[in-house]
Structures are given as structure tokens and as C-alpha cells.
Amino acid sequence: MSIRIIAPGPLALIQDLGRPGAASLGLGPGGALDRRSLLAANALVGNAPSSAGIEILLGGFSVEFLEAGLIAVTGAAGLLTLDGGPVALNTALPVRAGSRLSIAASSAGLRFYLAVSGGVLAEPLAGSLSRDVLAEMGPAALAAGDLLEIGQSSWAAASSVLFRDPPQPEQVLSLRLSRGPRLDWFAPGSWAALTSRQWSVSADSNRIGARLLGQPLEFARSEQLPSEGMVTGALQVPPSGLPTIFLADHPVTGGYPVIAVVRRADLDLLAQARPGQKIRFLG
Questions:
Q1: With a threshold of 0.90, does the pTM exceed it?
Q2: High-pLDDT (> 90) share of the chain, %
Q3: If you ran DSSP here, which 8-state letter would residue 138 be given?
Q4: Is 87 left (phi over 0), alpha (psi -120 to 50) or beta?
């Protein structure tokens, strides 16, 4: 099976569950920002959890299926049409040869995930098909006219799938924290300040990190910290005092102190947070 991209929207990327363990190559873990949604889409069409799908930012996406198959779209909320008629998100949908799927602008959340039975095929890099936007490695961002090959479907029975609604723009997201390795670099009371203040997601956020806006944190030390290894979810604080939460395509090292780390299970929520979305930290 193969598919043709008609319109990619602002950004459409091939993503799977990433390439953990490739830091020695200068590559972050990568993979779908909302892993739960990709896993759900793959489960709906009977794919293996590690199968690659398409991560679609904001919508404005359309695709033609050149052969019959089974598809599912999960993640953000928005109008989904198949051959001109509305269809449901979070549902396995049969398509015929020549069918066209369109995803309108998202009404809640940021990222949709399209899975096709058999999974998207591409050239792997360090065991993953995911695009790393920081390293600019892995399959390129999709463009109109691109043809993607789809693997052989196993047509396995869909397993039980649990869905989580994307956050509404006015919703305050609660993210759980663990204390970071450089808490002592911050002024007394900084942990209380971090967890008692409300923060908002900056429009400068991307797959590399979610930049936060709010009242800056204060430092207790002014010397330069040597570069050290970074993990997904790390809250790195630059001289501005405004944290950045490292996401899937984060750099493997960093030279600013890490005050906390967001728990991995909560990062999927952050992947769907719109600019201006409010955040509070629980620690």
C-alpha cells in the first residue's frame, strides 16, 4: 500500500516511539510527542506499538490512499472528513483505493496522529523512523506530492484502547515534578515558587522544548555550569529565570541548571498544550 500527501499542513512528520540510547551519536530520544495518542492509533488498526505513523501539527492536512486499508486518527480534536463526509476520531476507519482524508484545523490540542494498517515505511536512523528537528536527521518533513510506502498489514485484532481528551485552551494543566539535580543553584524558596506559581506556554515552543512564561526564578549562584547530560522532561533554567521543559528532540547536553524533571507520563499532556495554555506544577 502507498499513500500520497496532498497537503501537509504547517508540519507533518513521520514519527514512531523514538531512538532512546542514541545520545552518544548526538541524537535525542525523539519520537512522537504524544506517545499515548500514537500508541492508540496503532492499536486501532492492529499495528505493532512501535509502528511509525504521521504526526500532524494543527491540521490543514490531507492525504490520498492509493490502495484499500484501515486507518485511525487520534490526538487533537477537530473536523475529520473522508471522501467529503465527516468521520470520527479515535476510530478504525476502512478506506478504499482513491479515498481522501482531510483534517481541519484543531479545535483543542495541537497534534493529530494518523496510523495506517501496516505502518509507514522509511529509511531508519539508529533504529527509528522518527524525524529529529534539532539534529535535522531522519525522514524529512512531509511535502505535497510525497509518496509514502506502507508496510504489509497483519490485520491483527485491535487491542483495548484508552483515550484521553486533548486539553481545552482554557484548561490549566497539572504536571507532576521530581526534584532536579541542580536545585541548590536556585535561591531559597525557589521550589515553592516553582510549584505555587502559574506558568503559561510560550509561542516559541516546539518539539525541542516548551518555553514557559511567568515570574522568573531567582538563582543562588552565578558561575557557569559545565555542560552535562539532559533527559526528556528536564526543566532547564537559563539566565532569564524562565524554565524550558525539554521535549522529545531536546539536545543531549546542556549548560543551564535543571531545577526539576516532569514525569514522563505527563509529557503527553504538554505535547497537546497550545501557546498561552496555563500550567501548574505538582511537586
A1: yes
A2: 88
A3: S
A4: beta
